[in-house]
Amino acid sequence: MTTEVSAVAGERRHLTNLAYRMLGSLAEAEDAVQETYARWYARSPRQRAAVENPAAWLTTVASRVCLDQLGSARARRERYVGAWIPEPLPDRTEWPGGDVADPADRITLDESVSMAFLVVLESMTPAERVAFVLHDVFKYAFAEVAEILGRTPAACRQLASSGRGRIRRGVPDAATEHARQAVLVRDFKQAWEAKDIKALVGLLDPAATMTADGGGVVSTALRPVEGGEEIARYLAFFAEKAPGLTLLERTVNGAPGLVARFAGATATVAAFGFAGGRVTHIWAVRNPEKLGAWA
Description:
Blueprint: H1 2-9, H2 12-23, H3 26-42, H4 45-49, H5 54-78, H6 115-122, H7 126-137, H8 142-149, H9 153-170, H10 178-193, H11 197-203, E1 204-213, E2 225-226, H12 228-241, E3 246-252, E4 255-262, E5 265-275, E6 278-285
Parallel strand pairs: 1-6
Antiparallel strand pairs: 1-2, 3-4, 4-5, 5-6
């Protein structure tokens, strides 16, 4: 019994990583994992003992729970006020209280949780997303994916291929290395602090887009701000209206980003997309319900 409990509990980190990539929300991912364990322990001891591979059983159930949640999430996000952006995560060492017991310690921050990657995942159908994440990110065979989705391996191969095409079109190869991105973000921070519109325009791609997520809880731009100059002017206006705003360089979903603090609280977490040595996308999360990890 002790061995079973230990083995099953040991899958939590894997399941949380899986669910976060499928759902784009740590809170929803943890709910999905909790539901998975609830279903496991709702089975009788004899039923649990009959499961040859508990890890595979848990992955199957968690994936199906996520698939169900993705279907209902689409309806909820259609009613969401403004744009919905995936929940940003800090580096595990930056979580309040340390990195030992926090849920963030269970999320591996790699390219598959970059904000650009997660935003493209949001554009996929639920089946595409589950098939792509299971096969391309977690390397499950199509036969296993087929059993989880209740489709043929050929159909799952097509779903993953479609998702892969979306990623290829929507997530450009990084034109700068991580260190150069950090320098670019630092320059961006300094220009924003100085309200230097000209400097901001020079750092932004002329066709850059900024999307903000306030969830109807806090004020923010309800539509994407498009164009480098328009974004620069918007940010300068924002800084002008919030004297005392403090900008901090932080890791956001494994990449250089910025955290804006105002009156002692985190007001915005900004993730960036880069190409050609400039900023091409800014995803600014302002909904306080998504900023619990940044307290």
